[in-house]
Specification:
This protein is α/β, with parallel strands linked by helices and 410 residues long. The protein folds into two domains: 3-213, no CATH class; 217-388, no CATH class. Helix content is 49%, strand content 14%. The protein is built from 16 helices and 14 strands. Strands 1, 2, 5, 6, 8 and 9 form a six-stranded mixed beta sheet that branches. α4 packs across α7 (180-187), α10 packs across α11 (248-262) and α11 (248-262) packs across α16 (367-383). This is Glycerol-3-phosphate acyltransferase. Belongs to the GPAT/DAPAT family. It is an enzyme of class 2 (transferase).
Length: 410
């Protein structure tokens, strides 16, 4: 590291803490002994490299601030696939320089016949999915959390707020490296080849970010309004009006009340807070937690598959431990189907903030409730939120697995 980078690393160390997730197929012991590696980041920003420096020191990897030497030439060890917003260099110039640097590395690998490993590194400042804004919203209104939420291609001012508020919740995912010699053999060393590789890397990082944070969340009431405008609920509202001889306003009021009873209100801050508490609890009561097949799960989520978790329910630790493991494996926590009996103060609001949505034990005799719940669950799947539910219908009192309960929507 240079003197300047070293000074900033120690100055920012109290404000940055990284959680590293490594693909199971990646052998870090072999990678740590290889100096011929180059890191591909979303953006080649100074603060991103400071955060990644912590992960490199923890796992004995080459520093992102060091130089990559290929035969007799030196190159930067990192480069970003997206431009940095800067007053000194516009985005087109930045991308042109990055493409030129990438092409030079490819040409040098071809010339020297010396292989270099490209290691994709996704850096996420915080795991908040962000709020989905509608076209009618005032785009000029920017609050403090909007500054923090803009974690990609952020200006220096926004990066300051990001480090200040989200620096200790930094998430780093290191993926399996790619051989540059194979890239050269398959795609050549032209500018078009370098541009294509960067485009593929951008898509790769965007999918990984979505796996870690989940899709953006709509404002609660806006989400309800969009559901009330769906064809299925419009028909259910018409039936409610005819059956109970009430107006459309009263029918919508009843449906809105049911939505407030059912819907979760996911907040990543609550998940992060309880993650710290549960870390302390697990360290007290367990010797260790083994997780298998997490790579397969991350790969499925990255390919765009809808993830539905169907665990057993032998104790109250099940839903706590599974959600905790999912979060720490770099996946977004699921929306969890919970019995209405758990919706009491103060547990109900806390569970709701952690992603729980509540359902009654029986839908019999209430067509509007059935239609509202069906539409809510349908919207969760459409928007791409992972869901977890227990087929046993409740907790096992004996500790044994129970047969799945049959669900009837009407």
């Amino acid at each position: 590291m240079s003197i300047i980078a070293s000074v900033f690393y120690w100055l920012t160390r109290p404000f940055i803490r990284t959680k590293v997730v490594i693909d199971d197929s990646l052998d870090l012991s072999t990678l740590s002994q290889n100096q011929q590696i180059s890191y591909v980041l979303t953006t080649d920003s100074f603060t991103d490299k400071l955060a990644f420096e912590q992960a490199c020191r923890e796992h004995n990897l080459a520093s992102p601030f060091s130089k990559l030497k290929i035969q007799f030439k030196s190159f930067n060890r990192t480069f970003g696939v997206k431009p940095i917003k800067s007053i000194f260099k516009n985005e087109k110039t930045h991308m042109r320089d990055t493409l030129a640097e990438g092409q030079k590395i490819l040409q040098q690998v071809e010339l020297s016949q010396q292989d270099v490993l490209f290691v994709p590194v996704m850096i996420c400042w915080g795991r908040s999915p962000g709020v989905e804004r509608k076209a009618t919203d005032d785009q000029n209104k920017i609050g403090i959390w909007d500054l923090v939420a803009a974690t990609i291609q952020a200006t220096p001012l926004r990066k300051f707020f990001i480090v200040l508020f989200s620096g200790r919740h930094n998430f780093v995912r290191i993926s399996k490296p790619v051989s540059l010699q194979k890239m050269v053999a398959n795609h050549g060393t032209s500018v078009d080849a370098a541009h294509k590789l960067m485009r593929v890397a951008r898509i790769h990082f965007e999918r990984q970010r979505l796996v870690a944070t989940g899709p953006k969340i709509m404002a609660r009431q806006a989400f309800f309004n969009s559901m009330l405008a769906s064809p299925a609920l419009k028909r259910a509202l018409q039936d409610e009006m005819k059956t109970k001889d009430i107006s459309l306003v009263e029918a919508k009021k009843n449906a809105n009340k049911l939505l407030h009873e059912i819907a979760g209100d996911y907040n990543e801050t609550y998940v992060r807070f309880f993650s710290r508490i549960l870390t302390w609890v697990w360290n007290k009561i367990y010797n260790g937690i083994r997780v298998h097949n997490s790579d397969e799960l991350r790969e499925l989520a990255q390919k765009g598959h809808e993830i539905v978790y169907v665990p057993c329910h032998r104790s109250h630790m099940d839903y706590l431990l599974l959600t905790y493991v999912i979060y720490h494996q770099g996946l977004v926590p699921p929306h969890i189907a919970a019995g209405i009996n758990l919706n009491f103060w103060p547990a109900g609001p806390i569970f709701r903030k952690a992603g729980a949505f509540f359902l009654r034990r029986s839908f019999k005799g209430n067509k509007l409730y059935s239609a509202v719940f069906r539409e809510y669950l349908s919207q969760l799947f459409i928007k791409g939120y992972p869901v977890k539910y227990y087929t046993e219908g409740g907790r096992s009192r004996t500790g044994r697995l129970l047969p799945p309960k049959q669900v009837c929507w009407r």
